[in-house]
Hints:
alpha/beta, Rossmann fold, 7 helices, 36% helix, 18% strand
Amino acid sequence: MKRVAQFLIISLICVHINAQDIAVLKYKGGGDWYSNPTALPNLISFCNERINTKIKSKPETVEVGSSDIFQYPFIHMTGHGNVFFSDEDAENLRNYLISGGFLHIDDNYGMQPFITKELKKVFPDLDLIELPKDHPIFNSAFSFKNGLPKIHEHDGKRPQAFGLFYEGRLVLLFTYECDLGDGWEDQVVHNDPEDVREKALQMGANIVKYAFEN
């Protein structure tokens, strides 16, 4: 009963705190949660300029098992390798998502087998579902008629966007074989052409706008 009461209090608070801020999710398992350090600051700058958000320019870092995650309506997660959620981490993340939070997981290459397993700890009865091309997230600010754009080539697979839906609401987006975060980084990091970076930033803005408004 005490844990339920604490969850309800946190849920009520999180609606009002940092209404348009973003945080990076720090997780266990040895994966490089800290990769793409220039990505989110660049995405934030793009969103503030192009879709009129008021996001703080420097994203905070929050641990998956911390109550601090409830202060942010949007959390971004990335990496290349292993991910591990303890039971407490999974419960905290579940409570965050069902109380209105949104998690974007961007596979930076090699993350997929680990994160899909750990998400079963968070929502044992839910499966990742591929979003159709006409899902509103692909048109919330900029139009992507073909769905998720391809930013970086790895294994020759098509880019895919998967979602977890809780009671009809998209609470988690997993972008795979796309590497949006690499496209958000400073141009000198990956030497991506400007049109590719623009696509990545536009799709990122779509995700942010959708998360803030739904």
